[in-house]
Amino acid sequence: MDAVKRGFHCRIDELVPLARQLRASYVRDQAGFKELLPDDYTAAFLTDFDQRYAAADALEETSVQVARKMAFTQRIHELYAQLPQQLDFLEARVSRAEALTVPARRFGIVPARQARNEDDHPALEAALKTLLQNIAANETTLGKKGHKAADTTRLQDLHDALVAETTGRGTQMSSQKSNT
C-alpha cells in the first residue's frame, strides 16, 4: 500500500484563513468526529488547535518580513560603505606597527575585506571578531600609529549590528517556519 500524501499546499498568508475555516467546520461536525475517533477528538483537541491557531495568527505578515529585510539590507550596506576606508586605515597602521602579537598578514584584514566584498554576513562577523580581538591585543602599538578608540568603536558597532540583525532575522524566520 502506498503512503498517504497530502494533496494540498498553501502559502503562509493562506494559513490563518484556512485554519479559521477548518475550525468552523470541525465545530459544526464535532459530533461526527467524536463518533468516528473518540480517543482523538476530545476536548483537548480543540484547545490544542486554538493554541496553534493563535500562534499562527500572531505571525508577522510576509509583506512586513520583506520590508524588514529591505531595511536590514539598507542599514548593513550603509555600514558596509564605511568599512573599506576603515580597513585601509587599519591596514596601513598594522603594516607599520612593530611588535604585534600576530603577524600583520594574519591580523584579519584580508578575510574581513573579502567577506565584505562577497556580502557574506557570517564570514564578516567572524572576521570582525578576529580583527577586534587583534586590535585589543595590540591597542598600545596601534595607538602609536594613529589608531583611535573611535576607530575600534566603529568596527565594534558594525560587528554588533551584524550579530543582532542576523540573529533577530534568523530567529524570526525560524519561529515563522515552526509555527507554520
Low-confidence stretches: none
- In this structure, how is the largest beta sheet organized? none
Shape: rod-shaped
Number of helices in the DSSP assignment: 8
Q: What is the mean predicted local confidence, pLDDT?
A: 84
Give the tally of β-strands.
0
Helices and strands, in N-to-C order?
HHHHHHHH
Fraction of residues in β-strands = under 5%
CA-based gyration radius: 27 Å
Helix/strand class: mainly alpha
**How many angstroms does the end-to-end distance come to?**
29 Å
Helix content: over 70%
List keywords for this structure.
180 residues; mainly alpha; 8 helices; 76% helix; 0% strand
Structural notes for this entry:
The chain is mainly α. Helices cover 76% and strands 0% of the residues. The protein is built from 8 helices and no strands. It has helices spanning 12-28, 30-36, 43-57, 62-96, 109-117, 121-137, 139-144, 149-179. Helix 1 (12-28) runs antiparallel to helix 3 (43-57), helix 4 (62-96) runs antiparallel to helix 5 (109-117) and helix 5 packs antiparallel against helix 6. It is rod-shaped, with a radius of gyration of 27 Å. The model has no long low-confidence stretch (mean pLDDT 84).
